[in-house]
Amino acid sequence: VVFLQRSLSLTERTRLGLSEAWYSWVERFGLQRLRSIVSGVATLPETDEPLYLLGKRYETLNRGEKEDEKEDDDAQLRAKERTEAFAEDLGSRAWVTYRSGFSPLGPSLLTNDAGWGCTIRSGQMLLANCLLVHHKGREWRRRGGEASTSAGHDAPPTAEDIFSLFHDHPGMGSPLSLHNVIKEGAGLGIAPGRWVGPHGLCQAVRRIFTREEARRRARGGAGINVAASRCELSLSLYLAADAGGIPTLYRSRAVEEATCGSDGATWRPLLILVPVTLGCNSSYVNPCYVPQILTVLSTPQSVGIVGGKPGSSIYVLGRQGDRILYLDPHTLKPSVSGVIHHEGAQNDGAGADSYFCDSVHHMLCARLDPSLALGFYCRERRDLDDLYERLGELSRKHPTTSIVSLAEEPEPEKDYDAASTDVDGFQLY
């Protein structure tokens, strides 16, 4: 609460004001896209390596070389079809960026998050894409014919319904908004105008899920009552966040989270978040972890990684060879105002298109910052078992530098008082 109520100093306000002016200028003149094109990070390299996007494999987009003219035409046609399929998939992934013009964040009076909110926006991308897969399926594609809001409470949520959970508003109708992340993360040091790391973000998200789960149970099991979105945060969350060292994923805890509040047999789709620090170097991830990161991005359960370049967060949603594919939140757009306050109110739907983009960036995986948060989605129990099998195989392949530890259940705490023995005035354990 102290952080939420904290006002900004003149120096901080000046710095953030300059950030907003810079990003507004860049967006107005399209300089970021131009810089990406010139630097080559927005153009996929010509390679025969397959691509992975949220765990889905696409064969090389490269046409290849054929001596026979007919074979060459066929190869070109197949490459075109693969390229179009990949582009359509990419264009259906959620893209969350800096926003301006939302309600002030407490005494800080900030109405934009330019220059400091990139980790929160990257986390929102992971959550939004997980919810898209959860509610609409991995094969859903955005083709322009979807209604702005669902026709009724029994109808499946639209993409815009899902995005309403992230609208920049402090109300309960947008539980995953920037305002609510800061509110729930206040005790963790998250504050307006301050950059936050992936670990702190994951802790704040867990608090939001815990709060919404309590409300769901109070309503007798109903999801979030958002008349505007008609969308539920109907996911369970397992956060693997040990106090130090390599995080351990306990299968029993994951199952408990996914079946909590039920008869133990009813499975509720599970989101797993694993914050990790992969190396002591403050600039780049330790090279021994690079192959494991790339393998994780190839798993069918992957919903991406919240990571970044040093001091700049991004959302990693795929890979090709030794390069990662990512969406960049460092674009300033107007805040979406479609907030529903009561039953029957209408969503203006003006900003739905601003949650999608048609370009992806890439960079060497070895250039990632060591602080990351891995995300996995398990719709069914068998998805969890398959994930554990895949991660177990990865761990056996890298026994001394495993990215994550696996166990069936936590070891019982030792009772040192009961196990102690008094020998010659010394207490032995």
Report how far apart the termini are. Answer: 43 Å
Q: Give the rounded overall mean pLDDT.
A: 81
Going by helix content, strand content and strand pairing, the class is: alpha+beta
Overall geometry comes to: globular
SSE order, one letter for each helix or strand = HHEEHEHHHHEEHEHEEEEEEHEHEE
Largest beta-sheet characterization: 9 strands, mixed
Number of strands: 15
Share of helix, binned: 25-40%
Give your account of this protein's structure.
This protein has 429 residues and is an alpha+beta fold. It has helices spanning 10-29, 31-39, 69-90, 118-136, 159-163, 178-184, 198-218, 251-259, 290-296, 381-397, 416-419, and strands at residues 51-53, 56-58, 98-100, 236-239, 248-250, 270-277, 302-309, 312-320, 323-327, 332-334, 361-364, 371-378, 405-407, 421-423, 426-428. The longest helix has 22 residues, at 69-90. It is globular. Residues 223-229 and 339-350 have low confidence and may be disordered.
Give the SSE layout.
Layout: H1 10-29, H2 31-39, E1 51-53, E2 56-58, H3 69-90, E3 98-100, H4 118-136, H5 159-163, H6 178-184, H7 198-218, E4 236-239, E5 248-250, H8 251-259, E6 270-277, H9 290-296, E7 302-309, E8 312-320, E9 323-327, E10 332-334, E11 361-364, E12 371-378, H10 381-397, E13 405-407, H11 416-419, E14 421-423, E15 426-428
Parallel strand pairs: 3-10, 4-6, 5-13
Antiparallel strand pairs: 1-2, 1-8, 6-12, 7-8, 7-12, 8-9, 9-11, 14-15
Helix pairs in contact: 6-7
